From TrEMBL:
Belongs to the bacterial solute-binding protein 3 family. Residues 108-330 form the Solute-binding protein family 3/N-terminal domain. It comes from the Bacteria. The chain crosses the membrane at residues 21-44. This is Glutamate ABC transporter substrate-binding protein. Keywords: Membrane, Signal, Transmembrane, Transmembrane helix, Transport. The keyword Metal-binding does not apply. Residues 47-92 are annotated as: Disordered. InterPro entries: Bact_solute-bind_prot3, SBP_3_CS, Solute-binding_3/MltF_N. SMART domains: PBPb (SM00062). CDD domains: PBP2_GluB.
Amino acid sequence: MTCRGAPANRHADAIGRYRVRWVRAVVVVLFVCVAATGCVRFPAPPSPPPVAFGVQPTPPGAETDAAREPAPNSETCDATASLRPGPMPVPAQMPQRTTMADILGRGRLIVGLDIGSNLFSFRDPLTGDVQGFDVDIARAIAQAIFDDPNTIEYRVLSSAERTQALIDHSVDVVVKTMSITCDRVDDVAFSSPYYIASQRILSTRTSGIDGPAALAGKRVCSARGATSIGRIQAIQPRARMVTTTTWADCLVMMQQGQVDATTTDDAILAGLAEQDPWVQLVGPSLGEEYYGVGIPKGQDDMVRFVNGVLNELRVSGRWQQMYDHWLSILGPGNGPPQPVYRD
């Protein structure tokens, strides 16, 4: 017995067979057309947009509309003047009852830095090694104490954690793009400057931001604890500050369109720009920053020792080699900063 639905099913089967034959015919025509004449033209993909990735959540710890901070003022004190280095001891033979002897006895130099400041301190994705300009400074200090640059224990710190880590002696030194300021010398000691940076602005190429005037009403990112926050707030009071834990977070937020610009020292921004061709440094210098090695307050012997290490890097030409290797993207530079001693 034939069921009532059979004719409808046969009709549907016929339609299905027709569609299969039509699709096969189109495929054959397309294949012949491409093989014979190359006549099929697919539109070129559009240029990648400034937003490099899909929208993602705001990085953990990011804070919008950060409170106003005082602008750094290095003119109220002679912050960059340090202690004159003494005679350098033989490596692995530190004078007794000195900070360096204690470090030698422990068997490692504990260095505070981060691993998200490209060019200065970052983890190589292939080898896993921590490297960069700041890392080379730390390795030179370890070399002078142990006669081995690898005797280092790294402690990863955010910008906001640097001073406290020195106060509570959880690190021996901080080598993390740490600017020498009058506020900070109340709490910690510094070496003589080993690098001079200029604060700049990083923006996307299509943002229209070309200087501090264009930041009015814009969201501007900076790492928490950086002196760049107070300076940009003083220069452009209408900027809306967004603070994060790391500079890498600022780059991610720019890529996601969550902030309009980032501001800090040109060397750090250059490291971010190397990771994304859609961003660029813009505008004039907003002020100079003198980087120093942070040392716990009261350890004058360690200050003199580190200054001796920095002096050897300058006179030997090693500082310039480090600059050429890590920071040549900033141009030829002006050579190492010359120290000023207060004694």
